Amino acid sequence: MTDTLIKVNLNESPYTNEMIHNRWHPDIPMACWVKPGDDFILETYDWTGGFIKNNDSAEDVRDIDLSIVHFLSGPVGVHGAEPGDLLVVDLLDIGAKSDSLWGFNGFFSKQNGGGFLTDHFPHAQKSIWDIQGMFTKSRHVPGVNYAGLIHPGLIGCLPSHELLDQWNSREQALIDTNPTRVPPLANPPFPSTAHMGKLKGDAKEKAALTGARTVPPREHGGNCDIKDLSRGSKIYFPVYVKGGGLSVGDLHFSQGDGEITFCGAIEMAGWVHMKVEVIKGGMAKYGIKNPIFKPSPITPHYNDYLIFEGISVDEAGKQYYLDVNVAYQQACLNAIEYLTKFGYSRSQAYSILGTAPVQGHISGVVDIPNSCATLWLPTQIFEFDIRPSASGPTSFIEGGPTMPIAYDKV
Ligand code: ZN
Predict the structure, then answer these.
(1) What would the DSSP string read from start to end of 327-378?
(2) What is the pTM for the complete model shown?
(3) Is residue 124 part of a domain?
């Protein structure tokens, strides 16, 4: 039987578990050690450590202190791994915990986190998704039902001191360009809610002062939120510290490209069965700075799409120069507008784009002044026909369930 090296109790705070951490720092001690060739299971909290509940209120999404995230399981030390090596990680399987067969999708208030389309969706909202084997559906978003593309939103190795210093100084320089922006440009270290695993006392207090927040993806991987890095993938991670220090968390049952709702995806607690190997000196041998990976041989078989185009001209008509972010926002807004014609609220449509296996493509980046991004909406996830036709759209949804919303406290 495969050993479960890290266990989590969803009824207990992640702060009580020494094999969990929520910052990146090379001084965090290994939670456990394995050998190259070993396979093992790590259980994980959802990224908020259980703060978001399976109910019909969005007050938890509104009220969460985002400095507590993400709760990660690890770091796992691999004997023989040294800086400059590649850590090869096979994601043999991933699943939801059997006592927690549900996940959540949320939009953060613009005052507390925001998101990709925060100007259009400035209030906290939430949808709950039930997990039935490999499928999911939501009591808050009717008319869709689809297979999961289960993946860790966040996985990577500990940074070295030198790399950590680079992260902190470059991100602080960005923050300094507009320190009062809401939402902020980046999140600096924040010691008071840091959980540094087994590190305790003065050493913990000192490391927490510089422990990097887990929000952005960085050279080590981290919070990449790549839907195709799913169970069955093989990943090659740069190693920066002795033992590597592999951590994982923020499991998603499914997600669209871009994780556009920010508390995007269908966020869940679960487990990851993985295997590790080491390629000595692999970073230099293959010229690898950021992780690379091979995708899974298994993906949901949705092969029919409605594809929405967007260009780098915003909804006010302002022209941008080859701005892919603006173009993808426009593609998403176009898809949302389209789905409202079938009776969805704008929030429900946004939630579908965040959670379903929607593809996002950078389609053109050379035709000045407009970049072109496309959003690929799988038609087979809908329980009715969403293609345009001469008879016009028929609403199956109107008068149905709505998504919980929580307005900011004044
Ligand atoms: Zn996530």
Answers:
(1) HHHHHHHHHHHHHHTTT--HHHHHHHHHHS--EEEEEESSSTT--EEEEEEE
(2) 0.96
(3) yes
